[in-house]
Design brief:
The complex is a heterodimer of chains A (111) and B (265). With 111 residues, chain A is of the alpha+beta class. Chain A contains 5 helices and 2 strands. In chain A, strand 1 and strand 2 form a beta hairpin. Helix content of chain B is 75%, strand content 0%. The chains are: A alpha+beta (111), B mainly alpha (265). At the A-B interface, helix 2, helix 3, strand 1 and strand 2 of A face helix 2, helix 3 and helix 6 of B.
Chain lengths: 111, 265
């Protein structure tokens, strides 16, 4: 049986952001949304490196979109989460939820 | 709209120093951000970052096979020592030396090339076996039952098994195998052929480089146990040959894309 695909922190963030953006998920809005959520700048190159990795794992799929003059005639690449990707996100949430249940609050820890 | 003249060099570098399928999209995204008010220094930083990530990714993918190729080629003197110490090989070399020209020269060349090819191909089989076992451990070991064998035993077993059985039994199995991390028989044959070509070409290159210095290539190859500068020279064709074979055999496992690209109207 093939093993479960474990997601890294940034991979999970990228997957959730793609789901959040829906049909508008390409490099620029992905990086912007991630920057807003994380509260710090995100390099577009690192976003693409993660997207590439996720696509190789089969968790996302991409398709070429329209090319515009402001992009120097280069086409956008839109990303969507695959069924396998959605299952991986749910599985990761399940594992993390279990682990977070045993997380002590800072007040308890100090006491 | 900002002028893009100041970022021409950065754009050129992005297009020529990155190789991923998303290169075009990345370049377009960066230009789009630039046109929406980002500074040229931001653009250059992003390009440098993308190239850095690309280099790191490539090294992560090719690093192990590069290290293995060069480390394996360093064992060639020991391999050569084993061959010339073998009674059969010794007898053959003596017999070849006493034959008339041009047979003696031809057999001499064969005696140099065959051990080198066998050495490279053995390295390829060992690497493929280790690679396959590594992925078996990664894919199966984490979830289901934990393996009773410690990792070092697994690898020692893999090497020993490769030495004895791989060339015969695994190759036959490969003809009908559909394993994810196994190259097909055809790809393996192509890899062996490529390794042979690379070995011959690089050896000829090395020969043309060394011959003006007065050192004969066969003399360098026979320097079996001493470590001097020529050892590195003779190891280079072997390492490049093995690296090309491994890269060719495993090229299909690098990218298994699931998405299909289409152009929206």
């Amino acid at each position: 049986m093939r093993s479960h695909t474990y997601l890294g922190e940034f991979e999970l963030m990228v997957l959730l952001t793609i789901l959040r953006l829906g049909d508008e998920a390409y490099g620029v809005p992905l990086a912007r949304e991630l920057a807003i959520m994380r509260g710090s700048e995100v390099s577009i190159g690192s976003v693409y490196a993660t997207l590439d990795r996720l696509e190789i794992k089969g968790l996302i799929a991409s398709s070429l979109g329209e090319s515009t003059p402001e992009r120097g005639g280069r086409a956008k690449r839109y990303f969507r989460v695959t069924e396998q990707g959605l299952r991986a996100v749910h599985a990761t949430r399940k594992i993390l939820s279990k682990l977070w249940k045993s997380l002590p609050s800072p007040a308890e820890e100090l006491a | 709209m900002k002028p893009t003249g100041s970022v021409t060099l950065a754009t050129w570098m992005l297009e020529h120093l990155t190789f991923g399928p998303n290169r075009e999209a990345l370049a377009g995204d960066l230009l789009e951000e630039l046109r929406h008010g980002r500074s040229a220094s931001w653009y250059r930083r992003e390009v440098a970052s993308a190239i850095g990530i690309e280099v790191l990714t490539k090294f992560r993918n090719y690093g192990p096979r590069l290290i293995f190729s060069f480390a394996w080629s360093m064992l060639y003197p020991l391999w050569w020592l084993c061959i010339i110490k073998a009674p059969l090989a010794h007898t053959l070399f003596v017999r070849w030396a006493t034959t008339d020209w041009p047979l003696s020269t031809s057999l001499g060349v064969v005696g140099q090339i065959v051990p080198a090819i066998a050495f490279v191909w053995l390295g390829l089989f060992i690497y493929l076996e280790l690679f396959r076992r590594y992925y078996q451990i990664i894919e199966n070991g984490c979830h289901s039952e934990r393996s009773e064998e410690p990792p070092h035993f697994v690898f020692a077993f893999a090497v020993a098994r490769s030495l004895i059985l791989y060339a015969i039994s695994e190759f036959a199995l490969m003809l009908c195998a559909e394993g994810t991390h196994k190259p097909s028989a055809l790809r393996l044959l192509a890899s062996l052929s490529i390794s042979l070509n690379v070995l011959l070409i690089t050896t000829m290159g090395l020969w043309s480089h060394i011959s003006p210095t007065g050192v004969h290539l066969s003399y360098v190859a026979r320097e079996n146990s001493s470590f001097h500068s020529h050892l590195i020279a003779i190891s280079l064709p072997l390492a490049l040959s093995l690296l090309s074979a491994i890269s060719s055999a495993l090229s299909h496992t690098q990218r298994r894309r699931h998405g299909t690209a289409s152009v929206a109207s």
